Amino acid sequence: MKRFFSPTQMSLASRTFSMAERLAGAYFRLSAAEWRLHRYDVKTRAYLEDHEVQEGTFAHLCRYEYRQEPEETDRHRHFYRICLQDGRIIDAVERAHSFIRLSPLLLYIAAHELVHVIRFERGEGNFEADEEEKTGEEETVHRITRNLLRPATNGELNLVLDCFSNDYRIGDFVRS
Asked: pTM of the predicted model, to two decimals?
């Protein structure tokens, strides 16, 4: 059965992405103009295309290309879509029996995906990497995400960070 965020949960997701963007901007020292160069949007399960649904993950990052100017045939820019997998996120919170709460989990997911977007746009990560390289990228992104979230840490967020740091994992992040 497909599960979707409620309007309240969608609002919470929007607020956590705004907070994650502020934290990522501060961490990477991005100006408002620089943020505009990192084009992305966030969609929840109800608004995803079939190819944007990835079972077994909290979020799925898709990359699309567009031309900045019609006459610039060789110049491509990337646009990223962060595809939240509502059902997987809701299931993880429910399975954790109030151990993991939705707000800090969404903040971690948002920060993690924004780090990917920034790294890919800067050429610091390879979106088309093989599996071995993807594993290394995930470790790097997780480390950066932990550091980026340090100013926002509290007991609930620390529980989420601990889950991603240990062998017990509450989810996976996959990009395609």
From this structure: 0.89
Beta strands in 51-116 (DSSP E): 59-67, 76-84
Alpha-carbon distance of 37 to 17, in angstroms, equals 17
**For residue 75, which phi and psi values (nearest 5 degrees)?**
-105, 110
57 in Cβ contact with 88 (< 8 Å): yes
Model confidence pLDDT, tens digit, residues 34-73: 888 889 999 999 999 999 999 889 999 999 987 666 655 5
Report d(CA 20, CA 152) in Å as an integer: 10
Do 43 and 137 contact (CB within 8 A), yes or no? no
Q: What share of the chain is helix, strand, coil (3-state, %, to 5)?
A: 55, 15, 30
Question: 112 near 140, Cβ under 8 Å?
Answer: no
